[in-house]
Amino acid sequence: MYELTFLVNPNVSDEELNELINQLRDYVSRSEGQVIKDFSTQKIHLAYPVKKLRQAFLVTVDFDVPKDKIEPLKNHIKTIKSILRHLVITKYPIKILPPKIKPARIKTTVALDATKDTATKPKVKIEELDKKLEELLEE
User: In CATH, what number is assigned to the domain containing residue 26?
Assistant: First the structure.
């Protein structure tokens, strides 16, 4: 699949523009191809002059032709005087993959026995510790 985008001289009439589009459509069909997305035209202001012109018709079409017919099509476009610039690009179909589903996480709580015991036990006063030590030492 290919996309052809080209700029047409803004001084051409609507009839000449339609004739040019029909001519290119016929050329694609004669080249064993088909037009997938029809021609869309709009008049635009150019960022910089092209062949001393500040405006042009922007025309875009998507089509499908055999690979060996692209070069003759480009050569045919070069012979048309009212086309200022052209660009033919290859469009590859995009494969849309389904989103990956992540497994649900199970939260586990790990308690550290040593830290949890010391944190929950009440603090012992030093005086009580001294009494217990004396009792132990006397025995």
Answer: 3.30.70.60
Q: How many other β-carbons are positioned within 10 Å of the β-carbon of residue 82?
A: 16
Q: Is residue 124 part of a domain?
A: no
**What's the pTM value of the predicted model, to 2 decimals?**
0.64
Each residue of 17-75: pLDDT tens digit? 999 999 999 999 999 989 988 888 899 999 999 999 999 999 999 999 999 999 999 99
